Amino acid sequence: MLKGLPSLERLVRSLQNIPYLASKNVYRVAMHLMESNEKDLERFCNLILDAKHKVKKCQNCFNWCEDGNLCLICAATKRDKDMICVVESWHELAAIEKAGGYNGVYHVLGGVLSPLEGIGPSDLTIDFLVKRILQSNITELILATNPTPEGEATANYIASKLQVSNLKISRLASGVPIGSNLENMDRVTIYKALSCRRPF
Amino acid sequence: MLKGLPSLERLVRSLQNIPYLASKNVYRVAMHLMESNEKDLERFCNLILDAKHKVKKCQNCFNWCEDGNLCLICAATKRDKDMICVVESWHELAAIEKAGGYNGVYHVLGGVLSPLEGIGPSDLTIDFLVKRILQSNITELILATNPTPEGEATANYIASKLQVSNLKISRLASGVPIGSNLENMDRVTIYKALSCRRPF
User: Does residue B88 share a domain with residue B121?
Assistant: First the structure.
């Protein structure tokens, strides 16, 4: 398909390294780039490098920030600094913020423990979280990693690391999602919803 | 979601202009770019600009080419130059090449006529196709635009433009795809397959 087009092939290979680009779309994205005019492409490249240059990780919680060393949430005076919600990545943080109802601060792990992929505790920001808790007056920790095997293992690991300190640790409730249908739900979710049932 | 991150917001807006990037994936692609190291990003930008600089359109058929003014197919001595297969875009050309069995040359229209989107004959390479046919010894023209209303209209328009010249014009056969199931096929396809039935 890319016979005789070496520089296009190099670009397609580079695009294939970007996750979440379905294999057919890689060609379509490359074609879109080739059909854009040169000025727009230069502007696009400048935007990438400019964002890379300016967007940094918050020194406190590892959320993205652009001005100064703290993100908007850590810098906000109205947020409750005694409560930390631990999330896997920025996407989960954004989802919780969108849902509303949480007024504490966050800690972005940067992934989950995954021995198969070679991701150990030192690849995540767990040590910073432990240090952050020991150094300040954190009273509650919400482990909001995803309810996947890796997310559960990561939550367990973090909880075991913090057994010493006098800290209220909780995990997001698992169960049947609102608006769903028991008939179409997987049996692990139903089992979990049954075993974690709450008084009406 | 992008509050307080103006340069990231500009990048996401720019990525949203790329078609075939599903809305959620735009954020994931932006995050992937932010998490790449600066050297990789500079290399990626250089690949884009380098490909844009080198990849051109074939002067004859508007397929992509990189060395010289002709694409590999137009430059090939073994291809039959008397037969032109007219396709909408490079993707359809690649699909036909992959299927094999065609040894002629191509003409890439660059799209289809679409009054609703404001795409008229002057936005496509139809005039170049007419000139190309009048100037050379083309004997057969295969109109291989997609069997959509726009594709059919474009094929009709091209055929009407070339009524004068003594040229064999054909259209790709429409019917039931190989390996499919009549039960699951839409009625227009079945009607077309019936009306275009061929002797066994």
Answer: yes
